[in-house]
Amino acid sequence: MNSPVHSFAWRFGGPLGGLPPLVAWTLLGIVGVLGAVWIVVSYRRTLVALAPSPRRILVTLRLLLWAGLLLALAGPTRVERTYAKKETRPLAVLVDQSASMTTPDNRRQRRIDDALRQWRLLAPAAQAAHGQPRVFAFADSPAPVAIAAASVNADLPATQTRLFASLDRLLADAPPGGWGGIVALTDGLDTTATTAADALAATTRTALAAGTPFYLLPGRNRYAGGAFLTLRELTVPAQVPPRSSFRLEVTLDSYQPAARDLPLRLKVGDTWREPEVVRLDAGRRALAWSADIPADAPGTLAIELVAGSAPDAPRARAEVRIAAPTSTRILYYQGALDWGYRFLADILRRDPAFTLMPIFNLAPVGSARPRATPAGALPRLPDVAAGYDAFDVVVLANATAAQLSSAQQTALSTWVRGGGVLLFLAPDDAASHSFAGSEVEKMLPVVFGSGNTAQGEDPAVAAFRQNMRQVGGAHTDSEARFDSEAARATRTPPLSTFAWEPRAAVLFGTELTQAAPRFANYARVRRAKPGAEVLARHPADPAPEGDERAILLALQRYGRGQTAVLTSDALWRWKLDQPSRERGVEIFWQNLFAWLGRERQRGVRFERAPLLTENNRELTLRLVGASGLLTLSARRDDSAVDTAQSLLPAGEDGPARLFTWTPPADGSWVIEARLGADLPVRHWITVATSPGGETSGVPPDEGLLRALAERTGGAVLAGTAPSAWRTVSAEADAQLLRETTEPLWHQAWIFAALLSVYAVELVLRRRQRLL
Q1: Helix/strand/coil percent split, the chain, to 5
Q2: Which site among 158, 532, 601, 622 is 20 to 30 Å from 451 CA-CA?
Q3: Using one digit for the tens of pLDDT, what is the confidence trace for 198-229?
Q4: Which strand ranges, in their side-by-side order, compose the sheet holding 77-85?
Q5: For residue 374, what are the β-bridge partners?
Q6: What is the pLDDT, as a whole number, of residue 443?
Q7: Mind giving me the DSSP string for 219-236?
Q8: Per-residue pLDDT tens for 296-307?
Q9: CB atoms within 10 A of CB 262
């Protein structure tokens, strides 16, 4: 049955009746403003001077009269139209009350609570478009409920979720004319459908035949299912040098109803270490754990980690190749003239285990001299992180922050975070303090202080001048410079000696720390950052902050890389103070650079490869460091039967080469990557079937909900009502029955009011002797 709909409008009459409303209002506004200006001006220039108060009263009365006359001349008319409204189809609301929707998370929030909260915001728009909706709740089959009771888990079977069957049943039981739409508050989990794609296709066909769109409103919370513990990521270097050590890092993903202790068992080679107990807090947690592992003789070191003591405890395996690298590639940036570079370059170039690439930027900041690039040196630091991939260690020596652009500092930070190594050498307060608050300082293990240069002098220029004073002025002959420095070294005060911390012997070994380096100058830093490792201090001078002595050598992990700061000079004066056959300085620098570059990734390696995946789910593996024909194969590690499978290449992503693999069965699988005739690189993956079920903690299937909405012409609701619910104009949606008009100004009392205002004005004008 049709119901009438009333609509009201304002229509101009009189001389403005035939004009468009915008033009009519514009003309009326212009005339009104001009008349108001004329009224104000006329009362300011009267023949008799008026006091301010009478003038304001007269102006107000005349303006009221003018506004009334304009509106009367415009002839506004009230128009009332009555339409025959077309009948709309009702809306059905289907509320999922299965266990997955009603199980609270650790915050006591349920998915049904989240969905109902969103529905209450959209309900007014749905009611305006379709009338009062009809609400049903389901787990096994739909049943009518009141919307107030939909937030309570009623006595409905909750062992399974029959989403598609409930939608089909609701479509079959639709009222005459069908549903105008079905709004489903659900997480999209159907635990009965053997093939979700077939059930989706069948339900979609039924909805399209009935002309009923689906509007899906997903419910979300943080429910993670029952208690679980998995090893999410295991990180070890692919290759380390002999007689060194490396760090194993693992991330555990855990959900525990109550806090408990977990033993971690680590097997290195053929030896099990004593278990280490870690604390698992209640709730969803990610826990990081690490261990230092020595690498002795060359070969392949097998590592196995077991989390827990149960037979089915999660475990992870890895291999680390122990072999001397062909060379440690060093990029050396020299920011100011200093004797240390030539001294250090001679040491490294005498050892074939190192390759050195210099960058010279010796002109002071603001200098007009061109910065020429010597033969064999790079012109400048790279502006992108990929520009540092050809190096293992980057050295910033005697540099200032003004010499490095923002892009260069950001690129260097990104490279270090991805696994690079940075060594910062700055035995000068002004140069090092210029990096305070910079991107470089964020990476380093120490905090710099503010500069101590003279007022008005650029810190970089001060650093350059100090280095120039150390060298002794300009010389054209390099031997003359050497003689000058050698002579000056004999006149310097006694050299200070490194005071090693106990941690240095653990990291470096006694070979590096058996000698005590000696130095003349050092830069004073404020303090070490939390988590940094201070390896050497000044024998006597105190640090600017705290009760410790001044820092000389400190290290810090930064992402997957590492940074180090050496605040002393390059120890060249120590060499001049030793007999010519003494090699203590050379051993120190060679061992330091070899140790810093020990974990730098070389060769083929897996990048962010998972430790756990699901059965029959396609997996993409990323490999980096491959420059030739690369082949991948997968085989069962826990089966005596040959199960080898070849993995298909899937393209490239920057420096990474991609391969896809779909695990065919549960168990422990090993992925082998071969590059030519090289030894294979292995990665172990545990394949397990997803538990599924109502309380498994599976997240909402929003992909299925989106497909169901798009195929039926509906939408996934996200805070705004769909366009189909928006109110349309009555003229476009219904038939006009009648129209009545009523002039608003053709009434006696309105004209009487205007005459009264005019009469009051005349009386006041007479009293003020204006008439």
Answers
A1: 30, 30, 40
A2: 532
A3: 888 899 999 999 999 999 999 988 887 778 88
A4: 3-11, 77-85, 734-743
A5: none
A6: 92
A7: -------S-EEEEEEEE-
A8: 888 899 999 999
A9: 20
What is the DSSP pairing of strand 499-500 with strand 533-542? antiparallel
550, two tokens: 């001044």
Smallest CA-to-CA distance from 71 within 19, 151, 14 is with: 14
Backbone angles phi, psi at 711, to 5 degrees: -75, -20
Secondary element (H or E) of residue 50:
none
Residue 362's DSSP bridge partners are none
Q: Please name the residue that has the structure tokens 């002098």.
A: 457
Please state at what angle helix 52-74 crosses helix 21-44, rounded to 10 degrees.
160
Tokens matching residue 626: 């491959």
Contact 421, 596 (CB under 8 A): yes
Tokens of 492: 């310097």
Looking at the DSSP assignment, which residues form a beta bridge with residue 536? Answer: 500, 553
Question: Could you tell me the CA-to-CA distances from 160 to 190, 191, 226, 686, 741 in Å, in that order?
Answer: 8, 6, 17, 29, 62
DSSP string, 266-292: EEETTEEPPPEEEEE-SEEEEEEEEEE
For residues 619, 625, 629, 632, the Cα torsion angle rounded to the nearest 10 degrees is: -30
Rounded CA separation 239/672 (Å): 16
- pTM score above 0.70: no
Provide the terminal-to-terminal Cα distance of the chain, rounded to the nearest Å: 68
Cβ atoms < 10 Å from Cβ of 164: 21
Neighbours of 575 (CB within 10 A): 19
Torsion angle of alpha carbons 227, 231, 232, 237, nearest 10°? 170
DSSP string, 471-490: HTS--S-HHHHHHHHHHHHT
What is the per-residue burial (b if ≥16 Cβ within 10 Å, else e) of 31-52? Answer: ebeebeeebeeebeeeeeebee
Nearest to 569 by CA among 550, 545, 553, 580: 553
Helix axes 196-210, 702-712, angle to 10 degrees: 30
Per-residue exposure over 274-288, b if at least 16 CB sit within 10 Å of its own CB, e if not: eeeeeebeebbeebe
Within 13 Å and on the Cβ side, how many CA atoms surround 266?
Answer: 17
